[in-house]
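Reopening: structure tokens for the zinc ion complex, inputs below.
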Amino acid sequence: MRACAIWLVFSLTVAPMVLVTTAAMVGVIGGLGVAFVRLYGPLGLLLSASGFAVSYAAAVAVHEMGHVVGGGAVGWRARFVRVGPVTWTRRGDRWRFGWNRRSNWITGKVEAALGPRDPWRLVIFLMAGPAANFVLGAVAGGIVIAPLPFLPRCAAGLLAMTSICLGAWSLVPLRERGEVSDGLNLWRLLAHGTLPLTVKKMAFAPAAPASIRSG
Ligand SMILES: [Zn+2]
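Re-run output (same inputs, fresh job):
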């Protein structure tokens, strides 16, 4: 019964949001592609493709930053951040930069050491990523209607749509190679009132406390 209610909530909120934002993003990319090819020839295709790649990477980075800030706000210190193949690991007060080409290039992840585990803290930590995407989308959307030249406004439009679309997709309950989306974590939280928390021993932190991971 409870699973049915949760399924209904996701179907009525996340699903339409994903459909609408994905359609809008495809429309924006298609429109920009056509406009750029008309303006610049084949180079226009390269321009729109690379514009999308850069926007997507920026949207993932902002999403993970949202989790870091949201986690920090509820007392959960981030200790690992991944944006595509790029990683940052906290060692004491320092962040160590890394590169793992074998990790999923289109996703990101934040791992935070858990402090107090109230459900509201979980919700803030999980929602901060998608929220950061929606805020970035709104700011970039504002630039689109600002009196600026054509190209910066196109870039802002692409960034706005990519960011909003990523925020919506991250709320879909998904699991990929053992990594869990914010949507799946939220689903588990609604279903069980808590999350299966990870306790991981790490070489550099043998007494590592329980941690939470979200995409
Ligand atoms: Zn996330």
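Residues 2-214 form one domain. DSSP finds six helices and seven strands in the chain. Marking as resolved unless the reporter disagrees.
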